[in-house]
Amino acid sequence: MARQSEFVEFVLELLAPLGNVRARAMFSGHGIYQGEVMFAIIVDDQLYFKVDSVSRQAYAARGLAPFTYVARGKTKALQYYEAPPEVFEEPEAMRKWAQQAVGVALKASRKKK
After folding, report:
1. Which of 42, 28, 36 is nearest to 108 (CA)?
2. What is the CATH T-level fold of the domain 6-112, as seen in this structure?
């Protein structure tokens, strides 16, 4: 199980204004939760936010890539995209992009039920 890195701690500090944010180790990284919904992942010290068909466009337009992994010789992409670089320097940018990802995660959670 992945142990919590300094990068994970740094991201949690940046996300603290959202309230009730935590990290949970999973596979080779961490899931980032607000309450019970996972809205981001951290793998290899890279932050990815959850996207949907609408929000994905903003990430793709900026040249940001989805999180991918290889399974059984095939590359798979998850519904998580690289966080824009400014989120690490501008608190308002982090809040904006993270809140959008939380909204996407909440919507996806409701659809599952």
Report:
1. 36
2. Yope Regulator; Chain: A, (3.30.1460)
Give the C-alpha distances (Å, rounded to integers) separating 70 from 41, 67, 82. 17, 11, 17
Nearest residue to 84 via CA among 107, 60, 105: 60
Per DSSP bridges, beta strands 37-43 and 29-34 are antiparallel
Count of alpha carbons within 13 angstroms of residue 79, beta-carbon side: 13
Element (H, E) at 63: none
d(CA 65, CA 83): 9
pTM of the model: 0.92
SS3 16: helix
Please give the pLDDT value at position 113.
60
> What residues in the chain have per-residue pLDDT under 70?
1-4, 113
Q: The tokens of 96 are what?
A: 């904006």
Domain boundaries, the chain: 6-112
